[in-house]
């Protein structure tokens, strides 16, 4: 039982990454035969992995139809941002005395700027997600990191429905760098203010566009 559970967690990690990368877009049915065959795992192990990801709100089980990648609602999106404010802003607010260890934040900013130059919009989306993960990692809390990983994986279900990822990520590159530079300067109070404003604007823009997109589906 322990061996199967451990394997199921590894399978869930793989599927979570594939969902985040857009390999399985929202609404996709996950066939036990094809997915289990591709990963070389038993049906029971795969079902346990599906159960784990259903608990994370990435998958949904529909009676007599199977398991599907979840389609997020606008209410879900608003709740995701509510959690993001609670976690991300608290991570910055809880910083002690400067200087702060922001190498991971800087790496994410540089990766985003490089992706924009290369017009690699999926990479830009990934870099932006990593920026926010790095912000939360400043708290030094494995539990906060785990919570944020699940929240941001669910948020990427929204990004995959949008037709133009550049529109939703490129404008925030400048703001990512601004937050980085303020943290490098040791001003956590200003960094939190900038981050809160950033999340407000991002939520409003994304919720409006996503709501219009979903109403046409």
Structure overview:
With 217 residues, this protein is mainly alpha-helical. Helix content is 71%, strand content 5%. It has 10 helices and 3 strands. It has helices at 2-20, 32-39, 43-55, 74-93, 103-117, 121-137, 142-159, 165-169, 173-184, 188-215; strands at 29-30, 59-62, 66-69. A 3-stranded antiparallel beta sheet has the order 1-3-2. Strand 2 (59-62) and strand 3 (66-69) form a beta hairpin. The longest helix is centred in the last third of the chain and has 28 residues, at 188-215. The relative contact order is 0.13. The model has no long low-confidence stretch (mean pLDDT 91).
Main β-sheet description: 3 strands, antiparallel
- Give the strand tally: 3
Please give the count of helices: 10
Element order, helices and strands? HEHHEEHHHHHHH
Helices and strands: which structural class? mainly alpha
Strand order of the largest sheet: 1-3-2
Q: Could you give a quick summary of the protein structure above?
A:
The protein is mainly α. It has helices at 2-20, 32-39, 43-55, 74-93, 103-117, 121-137, 142-159, 165-169, 173-184, 188-215; strands spanning 29-30, 59-62, 66-69.
Topology:
Elements (H helix, E strand, L loop, with lengths): L1 H19 L8 E2 L1 H8 L3 H13 L3 E4 L3 E4 L4 H20 L9 H15 L3 H17 L4 H18 L5 H5 L3 H12 L3 H28 L2
Antiparallel strand pairs: 1-3, 2-3
Helix pairs in contact: 1-3, 1-7, 4-6, 4-7, 4-10, 5-6, 5-9, 6-7, 9-10
Feature tags:
three-stranded antiparallel β-sheet; mainly alpha; 3 strands; 71% helix; 217 residues
């Amino acid at each position: 039982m322990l061996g199967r559970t451990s394997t199921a967690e590894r399978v869930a990690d793989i599927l979570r990454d594939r969902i985040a990368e857009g390999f399985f877009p929202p609404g996709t049915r996950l066939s036990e035969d094809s997915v289990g065959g591709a990963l070389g795992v038993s049906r029971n192990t795969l079902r346990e992995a599906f159960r784990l990801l259903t608990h994370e709100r990435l998958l949904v089980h529909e009676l007599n139809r199977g398991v599907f990648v979840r389609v997020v609602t606008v209410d879900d999106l608003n709740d995701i941002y509510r959690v993001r404010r609670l976690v991300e802003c608290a991570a910055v607010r809880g910083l002690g005395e400067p200087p702060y260890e922001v190498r991971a934040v800087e790496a994410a900013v540089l990766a985003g700027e490089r992706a924009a130059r290369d017009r690699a919009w999926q990479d830009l989306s990934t870099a932006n997600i990593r920026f926010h993960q790095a912000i939360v990692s400043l708290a030094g809390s494995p539990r906060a990191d785990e919570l944020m990983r699940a929240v941001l994986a669910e948020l990427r279900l929204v990004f995959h429905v949008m037709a133009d990822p550049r529109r939703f990520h490129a404008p925030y590159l400048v703001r990512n760098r601004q937050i980085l530079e303020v943290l490098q300067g040791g001003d956590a109070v200003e960094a939190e203010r900038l981050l809160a404003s950033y999340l407000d604007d991002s939520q409003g823009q994304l919720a409006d566009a996503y709501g219009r997109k979903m109403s046409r589906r």
